[in-house]
Amino acid sequence: MHRNARFRRKLQDPALMHAMSAHNPLAARLAMEAGFDAIWGSGFELSASYAVPDANILSAGVHLDMMRAMAATVDVPVIADIDTGFGNAINVSYAVPQYEAAGVSAVVMEDKTFPKDTSLRTDGRQELVRVEEFQGKIEAACAARRDPDFCVIARTEALIAGLGQAEALARAAAYEAAGADAILIHSRQATPDEVLAFVAAWSGGVPLVLVPTAYPQLRERDIQALGKVGLVIYGNHAIRAAVGAMRKVFARIREDGGIHAVDAGLPTVRDIIGLQGDADMRELERRFLR
User: Fold this and answer.
1) pTM for the model
2) Which residues cross the membrane (predicted)?
């Protein structure tokens, strides 16, 4: 079964699907190795890996190239975080076929203005576009896909923008009516209460998607029990883990004046070579080099 079809089936399955963020193919491979169902091609993580703000500073081409590289590296579906769709509905119409051709199985698009500001910045500029405008972008994305199993997930930032439950629910219903295959509801509250209230009130026919970055106490078993959530995304844990590990190791090397204390605790060079696909290359050498 094609990855797109597997993703769509899993999204609608009663069993909760889980996706781990990644900012490069190595992170994606490690997430697949850990057993995650899908890879979240995070715009936040990719921006962080370039040391620039998550504010549409990186070009669409940079993001697309990274999604293509991830999809070529893993067997599980890749979900591309395309922020606001890189512009209006016309931009979306051109972008979606490129992501589909790159091997991505779904895109997530949010209803903020372009350029966006990151959702988890406490004093961020959270400006939403008109409902009708975003419906047009969803319709354009759905019309542009070649494979009907390719999924278009609409993300509403109404709670992030402080517009309340009624606005969030109204927008989610409008986006489902425009053809969205799922609704991602986002919150930066430190408890899951706001999101749980939305889930309880949701009467739509498409599954919901949660990103519990701000409320990590909500576990998968709790999300599964809600009965309306098809996918949980761990949105920035790869880059946070990488930054934490590098800071610790780099500081220890400077403190110790060498690598003698840290080296034994790191993955071996042989391990890294294995993650690079060295065995596959050696097999190609055996078969084709003369």
Assistant:
1) 0.95
2) none
